[in-house]
Automatic annotation (TrEMBL):
It comes from the Bacteria. InterPro entries: NAD(P)-bd_dom_sf, SDR_fam. The lineage of its organism: Bacteria, Pseudomonadati, Pseudomonadota, Betaproteobacteria, Burkholderiales. Pfam families: adh_short_C2. Coiled coil: none annotated. This is NAD(P)-dependent dehydrogenase (Short-subunit alcohol dehydrogenase family).
Length: 301
C-alpha cells in the first residue's frame, strides 16, 4: 500500500481485535503512527477474556510499515482517556484520525425484550457501546481540531438504511447501534464548520477472530464454513474495513461524506480497494436485496 498517511497520527480506540485491529494495521500499511488502545494486554485480559492483546496489534502495525503504540485504556474511565490524549499530544503534537471502535460486551441476549433482559448487563452494554465513544470524543477531538482536516469515524454494526427500519434482535443491542449511527451524524454536524469531518462506518459480516472461532475455521480456510451457512459467502476480512478507513483518511475531499452512514462494501466501489482475496464484498446491499427474494451471493463480491 502507498504511504499516503505518512506523518499522520491516528488513535484507534478499541484496537485489540476484529475491525479495530484490521483498521489499525491498514493505517500502519499506509504509513501512519497508530495508538492502539484497549483493555486486553499481555499481563491482563479484559472481561471479554480473549487472547488477543493491544501489544499484538501494535506489533502488527509496525510490521506493516507504520508505528504501532499500545496503550492500555479503559474508555469508560475519563481520567484514563484524558491521560491518553495528553500523552499523544506530548509525544506527537497532533492527532489527525480518531476511530471509535469500542464495544466489548461479553454477550448479547438475542431475542429478549427489555423486560426479559438482564437489566444490569443491558445497561452495562449500553455504557460500553455509547459512553466510551462519547468520553473518547470529548477528550480527543480538541487535539484533533488543532490541525485542519481531521477525521472522526464511528465504527458501527449496520448502516442507517438497514438499522433505521429493522429491529436488531435485542432491545439493548438495537439501541446501542442506533446511538452510534446518530453519533456519526451529530459529529458530522459539529465538526463540519470547524474544518474536520465526522461520519459512521460499518463493516459487513466480519470474519473476526471470534467469528472464525465460532465457525471452526481460520482466515486461510474460511470458505469451508459456507457449506453449513451459505450466507457466510459474503463475509469480509477485518482488512477490508481497514482499507475503507485508509481510503477516507487519504481523500482530500472526505468532507463530502460528513455526517453520513457508510459501509466498507459501498466505499470499495467508490475508491476501488478490495478485500484480501481481490473481491469487493457488499454484505449490507446483499442483505437488503435478499429480503426482496433469492439473490446470487457471488454478485455481491
Amino acid at each position: 500500500m502507498d504511504k499516503t498517511l505518512a506523518g499522520k497520527v491516528a488513535l484507534v480506540a478499541g484496537a485489540t481485535r476484529g475491525a479495530g485491529r484490521g483498521i489499525a494495521v491498514a493505517l500502519g500499511e499506509a504509513g501512519a503512527t497508530v495508538y492502539c488502545t484497549g483493555r486486553s494486554t499481555q499481563e491482563r485480559r479484559s472481561e471479554m477474556d480473549r487472547p488477543e492483546t493491544i501489544e499484538e496489534t501494535a506489533a502488527l502495525v509496525s510490521a506493516a510499515g507504520g508505528q504501532g503504540i499500545a496503550v492500555r485504556v479503559d474508555h469508560l474511565v475519563p481520567d484514563e482517556v484524558r491521560e491518553l490524549v495528553a500523552r499523544i499530544e506530548r509525544e506527537q503534537g497532533a492527532l489527525h484520525i480518531l476511530v471509535n471502535d469500542i464495544f466489548g460486551a461479553t454477550r448479547i441476549e438475542w431475542g429478549k425484550t427489555v423486560w426479559e433482559s438482564d437489566l444490569e448487563f443491558g445497561l452495562h452494554s449500553l455504557r460500553l457501546a455509547i459512553d466510551t465513544h462519547a468520553i473518547t470524543s470529548h477528550f480527543a477531538i480538541p487535539l484533533l481540531l488543532k490541525t485542519p482536516g481531521g477525521l472522526v469515524i464511528e465504527i458501527n454494526d449496520g448502516t442507517e438504511a438497514y438499522n433505521g427500519t429493522r429491529y436488531r434482535n435485542s432491545f439493548f443491542y438495537d439501541l446501542s447501534k442506533a446511538a452510534v449511527l446518530r453519533m456519526g451524524f451529530a459529529l458530522g454536524h459539529e465538526l463540519k464548520s470547524r474544518g474536520a469531518t465526522g461520519l459512521s462506518l460499518t463493516p459487513g459480516w466480519l470474519r473476526s477472530e471470534a467469528m472464525l472461532e465460532a465457525f471452526g475455521v481460520r482466515e486461510d480456510n474460511w470458505r469451508e464454513a459456507i457449506a453449513r451457512v451459505p450466507g457466510f459467502a459474503i463475509a469480509e476480512s477485518p482488512a477490508f474495513v481497514g482499507r475503507a478507513v485508509v481510503a477516507l483518511a487519504s481523500d482530500p475531499e472526505v468532507a463530502r461524506w460528513s455526517g453520513q452512514s457508510l459501509s466498507s462494501g459501498q466505499l470499495a466501489r467508490v475508491y476501488g480497494f478490495t478485500d484480501l482475496d481481490g473481491s469487493q464484498p457488499d454484505a449490507w446491499r446483499h442483505m437488503l436485496d435478499s429480503e426482496k427474494g433469492e439473490v446470487d451471493v457471488a454478485a455481491y463480491r
